[in-house]
Amino acid sequence: MALRRAGEERLRIARDLHDSLTHSISVIKVQAGIAVHLARKQGDEPPAALLAIQEASGAAMRELRATLEVLRSPGDGDRVGLARLGELAERTRAAGVPVRVAVTGQPRDLPAEVDQAGYRVVQEALTNVARHAGSATARVHVEYAPAWLTVSVTDDGQASPEKPVTPGVGLRGMRERVTGLGGTLHAAADDEGGFTVRATFPVRGAA
User: Fold this and answer.
1) Disulfide: which of 30, 34, 159, 205 matches 195 by Cβ 3.0-4.6 Å?
2) CA 105 → CA 17, 102, 141, 162, distances in Å?
3) What is the pLDDT along the chain (207 residues), one digit of tens a residue?
């Protein structure tokens, strides 16, 4: 039992590290490309791109420190959650992906593991939009229901039902995270084009 729990904890930390670093480094790569392009075109480095790189790097370090803190203490005061969705959306916009965020229902305190998992699903989905969707707009929807939390990310990018998506490490980790909490995950191309990721989590203790 102890070995199984230790293994589960290592997997959880590995998923957290993957989610944090993949998203932030993707932003850094995009902004670095913009900086290089403008530097060559105008002969100087654009301050906006440098500021975006600094912000993404800082966010990566904060999340990495917070994740590794689990190894040393049961407390995790800097744990990410849906309250930080605005920061995530701003970083994604800085990477060149327009993002619209909508919240329905009554926001409330969630179990920490559900709150964090909802954030991580949105984070991974936005990373995939930035990496694979081409010139696309992303729409994030968070829905609070009495017994459920649903988060979804939809884009109008290049995906189509005629081109099946082969799940990579990110999608597999996302599914493990959601089903591990008793939830369900839908990740597929839309009939009209684009891609949708939707995760629904049961909220323990709900009426």
Assistant:
1) 159
2) 31, 10, 11, 35
3) 766 676 677 667 766 776 667 677 667 767 777 777 787 788 877 777 777 776 777 677 667 666 656 555 444 445 679 999 999 999 889 888 899 999 999 998 999 889 999 999 999 999 888 887 777 899 999 999 999 999 999 998 877 777 766 666 678 888 888 998 999 999 988 888 889 999 999 996 543
